[in-house]
Automatic annotation (TrEMBL):
HAMAP family: Formyl_trans. This is Methionyl-tRNA formyltransferase. The gene is fmt. Residues 203-298 form the Formyl transferase C-terminal domain. Belongs to the Fmt family. It comes from Immundisolibacter cernigliae. It comes from the Bacteria. It is an enzyme of class 2 (transferase). (6S)-5,6,7,8-tetrahydrofolate binds at S109, L110, L111, P112. Residues 1-180 form the Formyl transferase N-terminal domain. GO terms for molecular function: methionyl-tRNA formyltransferase activity. Keywords: Protein biosynthesis, Transferase.
Length: 312
């Protein structure tokens, strides 16, 4: 099958690689323009662009697809199918209709739950017991199209945003190949999404990653996992940002934000209900460290306070 693939984030790479391994012809890969990254803010290609170049596929990086020229350029590839995975740009009707069989999307949730930009983080923050992937026929709505296939997976107690996203990316690639195979022989059938259970996974605002110590420990533990490995949960210690890469529920209690203990097992901080044991932290300008290594070079004692967000 002749396919045009649109994707940007690392989540999309397994799907692109699976299509190639299954013998499909990927005529072109669309990905977002190179963005500044790292401390030097050097322009860097997306993960999908790197994978496409390695495979020898033509790469297109339009700033927008909302022009007649963009639609004509995509249609010139004469695709049977457009596959969209974590692309990051809105596709107008002219693009959605450019391929003979329309556009498929690999989405990281069990639709209609968590439509939108950040389904992985939102599922973790909400404490969902399971999530999954959907292969969806795209329409003009926001993740509202009919679904060909769902693959559920439990959310494990130690899942982070990174580990869950990796698992869903692999599940999505496998499910995508199954649906494309069904489309080739005309047996794949999409089912409309149910009206009940729909909710929106809003794009993550980095301010959400600041730990509010007045919240219950369970909420903050989920926050740490949801934002690992990026953008990372954080708090303020002695006027500087302290990022948190790992945490467990503690056993103590006290005024929110107060350090209850600091030792080899971690830094225990009182929350609005219960306590949180910080096991991995990153000081400003430094690298992520196990708490015991962080404490080896710094004196942090019980009774100190980690700051909560300012009111308002």
């Amino acid at each position: 099958m002749n396919i045009v693939f649109a994707g940007t984030a690392p989540f999309a790479v397994p799907s692109l690689q699976a299509l190639l391994a299954a013998g499909h012809t990927v005529r072109a890969v669309y990905t977002q323009p190179d963005r500044p990254a790292g401390r030097g803010r050097k322009l860097s290609p997306s993960a999908v662009k790197l994978a496409a170049l390695e495979a020898g596929i033509e790469v297109c990086q339009p700033v927008s697809l909302r022009t007649a020229q963009a639609a004509a350029e995509l249609a010139a590839f004469a695709p049977d199918l457009l596959v969209v995975v974590a692309y990051g740009l809105i596709l107008p009707p002219a693009i959605l209709g450019a391929a003979r069989l329309g556009a498929l999307n690999v989405h990281g949730s069990l639709l209609p739950r968590w439509r939108g930009a950040a389904p992985v983080e939102r599922a973790l923050l909400a404490g969902d017991a399971q999530t999954g992937v959907c292969i969806m026929q795209m329409d003009v709505g926001l993740d509202t199209g009919p679904v060909f296939l769902q693959r559920p997976t439990p959310i494990l107690a130690n899942d982070t945003g990174g580990s869950l996203r990796e698992r869903l990316a692999q599940l999505g690639a496998e499910a995508l190949i199954e649906v494309v195979a069904g489309l080739e022989v005309g047996v794949a059938v999409a089912t409309p999404q149910p009206a009940e259970g729909a909710c929106y996974a809003a794009k993550i605002d980095k301010r959400e990653a600041q730990l509010d110590w007045t919240q219950p420990a369970q909420v903050l533990e989920r926050t740490v996992r949801a934002f690992a490995p990026a953008p990372l949960a954080w708090t303020v210690w002695r006027g500087q940002r302290l990022r948190v890469g790992g945490a467990q529920l503690g056993l103590g209690s006290g005024p929110p934000g107060q350090v209850l203990s600091a030792g080899p097992s971690g830094i225990e901080v009182a929350c609005g209900a219960g306590s949180l044991l910080l096991t991995h932290v990153q000081p400003e300008g430094g690298r992520m460290l196990p708490a015991r290594e962080f404490l080896a070079g710094r004196k942090l004692v019980a009774g100190e306070r980690l700051e909560a967000p300012a009111p308002g």
